[in-house]
Design goal:
- It is a single chain.
- It is built from eleven helices and twelve strands.
- The chain has about 350 residues and is α/β, with parallel strands linked by helices.
- It folds into two domains: about 180 residues, Isopropylmalate Dehydrogenase (3-Layer(aba) Sandwich); about 140 residues, Isopropylmalate Dehydrogenase (3-Layer(aba) Sandwich).
- Strands 2-1-3-12-11-4-5-10-8-9 form a ten-stranded mixed β-sheet, with helices on both faces. A two-stranded antiparallel sheet has the order 6-7.
- The protein is globular and about 55 Å long.
């Protein structure tokens, strides 16, 4: 039975890279039904609604969601971003955010030492709690007496299930990252659930790092890491760092999944890139690799491996956009990957 994929290119660079991801999926032989929805800043500015009810009902039923990027300089209201991406993460309970970082060619790494360049790690980020839930407020706003409070929400269930997932996908080791020496309440919960999980998985190596130490170690020697599990904020920051270690945000993919329900949303992490969007130079690799993560999630492991292999071949040959040292346009880069899947 063909899978039904909801397609949300949304804004800016998303409109350019999502078609390339679909092009590659079709070249790989994906027998999916793609349905694109009109969720973007233009629609929001017309209606004031981020995701209409009739669209939301379709997103809930879809087998997966292929997403571009959300955001527009014309829209200053946070309601738009929260009403699109954060709503899908929270209301679909996509509590696992996966951000793999794999170096496909040494020339893309900023690391000087060759023995430190074999980066192949996975950041497992809690995706529905932490500082991103929007709890808090601003009192006496706009005055010199203003007080701003941002609440960091952590639950027993939320912390337990993300740590457990990290152990399930680890190949060698799980490193839990927090700031428990300063954030003693949230950190205390993370530490308690971490220690319980470590005891339940005696055959998997495990260690704990404070977030500042983890950042230093990622720069010093990223090859030491297999799986990093952490909260929403730290996962966001560290995964951007790991993206730079493999060649930049243009090739960084991500998945937002619920392993229990099977729901998933897959997106490149580069955002709308308003400074270069619309010029045909945006790198589509992040979106293509996100599509590869989607087909793997849907059970098509061989297809996912084929797509990743085609991406690596294109990058190594220099058939890529200029941010990776090539000369190709967005569409030409998509063609280069698709051609390798057809040959």
């Amino acid at each position: 039975m063909s899978k039904h994929i909801a397609v949300l290119p949304c804004d800016g660079a998303g409109k350019e890279v999502v078609p390339e991801a679909i092009k590659v999926l079709r070249a790989a032989g994906a027998d999916f039904e793609f349905e694109e929805f009109d969720v973007n800043a233009d629609a929001y500015m017309r209606t004031g609604v981020a995701i209409p009810d009739e669209v939301w009902s379709q997103l809930v039923k879809a087998d997966s969601i292929l997403f571009g990027a959300v955001g527009d300089p014309r829209v200053s209201e946070s309601d738009y971003l929260a009403g699109v991406l954060l709503r899908m993460r929270f209301e679909l309970d996509l509590y696992v955010n996966l951000r793999p970082a794999k170096l496909y060619d040494d020339r893309l790494s900023p690391l000087r030492r060759e023995d430190k360049r074999a980066v192949d790690l996975l950041v497992v980020r809690e995706n529905t709690e932490g500082l991103y839930v929007g709890m808090g407020g601003r009192f006496k706003k706009g005055t010199d007496q203003e007080v701003a409070i941002q609440e960091d929400l952590n639950t027993f269930i939320g912390v337990t299930r993300i740590i457990e997932y990290a152990f399930e996908v680890a190949r060698k080791e799980v490193v839990m990252v927090d700031k428990s020496n300063a954030m003693t309440y949230a950190g205390g919960l993370w530490q308690a659930r971490w220690k319980a999980a470590v005891a339940e998985h005696p055959n998997v190596k495990a260690r704990h790092l404070l977030v500042d130490a983890a950042a230093m170690q990622l720069v010093k020697d990223p090859t030491q890491f297999d799986v990093i599990v952490t909260g929403n904020l730290f996962g966001d920051i560290l995964s951007d760092l790991t993206a730079e270690l493999i060649g930049g945000m243009g090739i960084a993919p991500s998945a937002n999944i619920n392993p229990r329900t099977g729901r998933g949303l897959f997106e490149p992490v580069h955002g709308t890139a308003p400074d270069i969007a619309g010029r045909g130079i945006v790198n589509p690799i992040g979106a293509i690799l996100s599509a590869s993560m989607m087909v793997r999630h849907l059970g098509h492991t061989d297809m996912a491996q084929a797509i990743e292999g085609a991406v690596e071949s294109a990058i190594r040959a220099g058939d890529c956009t200029r941010d990776l040292g090539g000369t190709l346009s967005t569409a030409e880069c998509g063609d280069a990957v698709a051609r390798r899947l057809r040959d």
